[in-house]
Amino acid sequence: MAHSEEKANVISTLYGGSGGSYWDDGLYYGVKTITLRFGRCIDSIAVEYHRKGEIITANKHGGDAGGDPEKIDVGPEEFIKTVSGYIGAADWTPGKAIVIQSLKFESNIRSYGPYGEEKGEHFTFTVNEGEKISGFIGRGATFLDAIGFHVIHT
């Protein structure tokens, strides 16, 4: 049976601060790669998605600091079911913006991370049984200020 991206879509709340500009990568069948830049916080995220047999590369969200990019390759039988991390003040910035301090991803097969510094307020987003994360939303400018998720039924 072919999979359809027309299945019901749920959009989560945003976790993090209110800085930066809102972005929405859209709804896809699944996540292929996640590329992060991080140091004291998550500086940026860029995601590649599966859609109708194609690989779609979304825009990078956030800044260019944080060291070399680190890429997570999500296997063909794998899907992201949980994202957790920490939210806190970037106390090295003038306004002490609330940003995503760290992220950890869990698939149906393995865990990736944590990336960044685990300090601040912890958050966890987990899909229900029979669902998967199929896209990312958020806010960002110099850093990844906030993150949220599109969820579809598998």
Automatic annotation (TrEMBL):
Residues 9-153 form the Jacalin-type lectin domain. The keyword Flavoprotein does not apply. Transmembrane segments: none annotated. One of its GO terms (molecular function) is D-mannose binding. Keywords: Lectin. InterPro entries: Jacalin-like_lectin_dom, Jacalin-like_lectin_dom_plant, Jacalin-like_lectin_dom_sf. The keyword Transport does not apply. Belongs to the jacalin lectin family. PANTHER family: JACALIN-RELATED LECTIN 3, JACALIN-TYPE LECTIN DOMAIN-CONTAINING PROTEIN. This is Jacalin-type lectin domain-containing protein. It comes from Rubus argutus. The lineage of its organism: Eukaryota, Viridiplantae, Streptophyta, Embryophyta, Tracheophyta.
